[in-house]
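Researcher: We're teaching a course module on how sequence relates to structure. For the next exercise, students receive a sequence and then see the predicted structure as C-alpha cells, so they can try to spot secondary structure elements on their own. Here is the exercise chain.
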Amino acid sequence: MMKFIDVTLRDGGHQHGFNWPLEFVQRYMESISLFPEIEFIELGYWKQSGKFDGPFYSIEEKLLKSICKMTKKKVSIMVDYHYCSHNIEDFPSNFNFKELGLIRVCLRKEDIKEGCMFVKELKKYARCKLSINFFNITNYTEDDLAIACQLATGSNADFMYFADTHGSLDLGQKLAIFKKYTKLIKEIGMTPGLHLHDHSGKAYFNYRNLLNAGFEATDVSLGGLGKGLGNLRLEHVFDIRGREHILDHLIIDKNLFLMPSGPYGILTARDSITDHYAVEAEKIGLAPSEFATRLEGITGFSKDNYNKKFLTNE
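Model: And here is the predicted structure for the students to work with:
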C-alpha cells in the first residue's frame, strides 16, 4: 500500500514566501483529517534562514506547538542540510512534540556523506522517523544513485526519497533503472519514495507507474501547489466523493493557491534545469524562444544551481 505525505503547506509555501495565516492552517488541518490515506502532513522547514522570511520557512518550537494542537495526524518537517544547523540539539524531538512523526533531510550531491551521518545522529535524538531526500534526481547518473544508496545504508533512516525537482522525469522510460534501486533501498530496510513535480505534465503518469517501479511512498498537494509549476495533485490521486469540501479551499482561499502557468518551466523541465531560471526569465520578460537559447549554455553545476550570468550576461 502506498504511503502519502501531504506537502501543501511545505512545498506550497514557495509560492508566497511561507506566510500561511494560522486561521487557514487550522481549517486545512480539519479538512485533511478526513483523508486517512495521508500518513503525515508536512508543515514547512525547521529554523532555516536566508531564502524566505515567512514563519513556515523557519518553524520554531512555539509555532510547532500551536500547530500540533490543531491535528491528530502526525506532522512532518523538512530541513535542507546545506543550510540548516548541524547541531542536533537545535531540532525538535518526539519526546517534546508527540505529533512529530517525521523529519525529512534534503541532501545535495556534495553533502551526501556528511548528511547521512547527520541523519543517523538526528534519528537517535529526535525519536521519530527520518527520511533522506535526494533531490535534482534527473541529473544523477546510475553511478551517482549507487553511491547515494551505499552512503545511506548506515544512516538508519526510515525512508529514502528521490525528488524529481525539475519536473522532467519520465518514469516509463526509466522504469528498469528505478526498479533496480528501489529493490536495493528495500533490502537496506528503508521505504523508497518519489516526490513528483508537474512541470512537464507527467506527475500523474509517473504516479501511475510508482508501484511498478517499486516505490512505496509519494507526496501530494492540494491543487498541485508547490515550487515551480507544482506537484502531483491530491485531488487527482484520492477519491474525494463525500470529501469534496477539500476543494472549497481552492475557491475560499484562492489567493493562497495561485500558481504560475507560463511556458518557462516547461523549457527548464525539458532540459532538467532548475526552475529558478524560469522564474527569473519571466520577471525580466525574456521571450520563451530566447530563453530556450540561453538554456543551451547551461551545464554541470549550474543546471541544479541558479547562475544569473546565463540570463543577464553579467
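Model: If you want an answer key for the exercise: The beta strands are 3-6, 38-45, 74-80, 100-107, 129-134, 159-163, 191-195, 217-220. Residues 112-126 form the longest helix (15 residues).
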